[in-house]
Design goal:
homodimer; 3-stranded mixed sheet; 5 helices; 6 strands; DNA-binding
Chain lengths: 134, 134
DNA sequence: TGTAATATTGCAACCTTGTCGCAATAAAAG
DNA sequence: CTTTTATTGCGACAAGGTTGCAATATTACA
């Protein structure tokens, strides 16, 4: 299966890049100028994942989020997205945090995929008037 | 809403306790002797979560898993399940790991819920003949 | 440039997970 | 034993994601 360059792919990647955050299929759809089918968006995103252009994180809301990931997208250590993610319960933003964590597994265990997410309130949403989360 | 003790509740909690792992609704259902409705299982599990008897972790498969959590279930620091989880891609087991991690958030960020999961191959599945994961 | 091969798209259909409303049932209090 | 009301089972539903298929668009190659 040789890949072909299409406008869907370039536009979706562009949206992810310029956003800088991890985005759900829905977020991407609303950012696209053209109307692109749901199935197509997923197919494109899964291709990007395979190719290591993008990585996926599953939220505690059960949804899939995809990120171009400024921190590690350029580097070549594809498929080792061992960093923490943060999802804001207020504004919905999902971002990659820089922190490279060490995750001690029991001996004999082999870790393949990392899904590390904290949800809560980001700086903007946590400091808003009226909000009093702790 | 005062809670009532029912056989569904006691049996489901018993299954979770004796398993020791985090279980999906489906895993629980197959362990129950009696037939209990899917909706009931979810309602019971969500009650347990509210009461701090059990905690929930969302897998990178998008499914919800519930654990009695031997490590912290007895202690009183309810709702602070900041530990790592491991899901085996081969046998499906989901377990709570002991490790208490420190998760550095950017300043101003407020973490509420932790969903920390590594998936891969557990000791038994990783060492089986024929398997050559790396 | 024109044509064939095939990757991609849109659409509809489908599956799974999880939730909800409602009537029937069962636990608890008196 | 009766009343109150939490719980259950059933069916229906919504959302997220995947798949099959025919139509379309890219690419390679003559």
């Amino acid at each position: 299966m040789k890949r072909r360059t299409t406008s869907s792919k370039t536009e979706i990647l562009e949206v992810l890049k310029s956003s800088g955050n991890a985005m759900s299929h829905e977020m991407i759809q609303t950012e696209l100028h053209r109307k692109v089918d749901r199935a197509t968006i997923y197919r494109v995103l899964n291709q990007f994942c395979e190719d290591g252009k993008v990585h996926k994180i599953v939220g505690d809301d059960g949804k899939q989020y995809f990120a171009f990931c400024m921190n590690c997208g350029e580097k070549k250590h594809v498929h080792s997205h061992k960093h923490l993610h943060f999802r804001c319960l207020e504004c919905g933003k999902v971002e990659c945090l820089e922190s490279e964590l060490s995750l001690p597994l029991p001996s004999g265990y082999i870790g393949k995929v990392h899904n590390l997410l904290v949800s809560g309130y980001c700086r903007e949403c946590g400091s808003e008037e009226g909000n009093n989360f702790s």
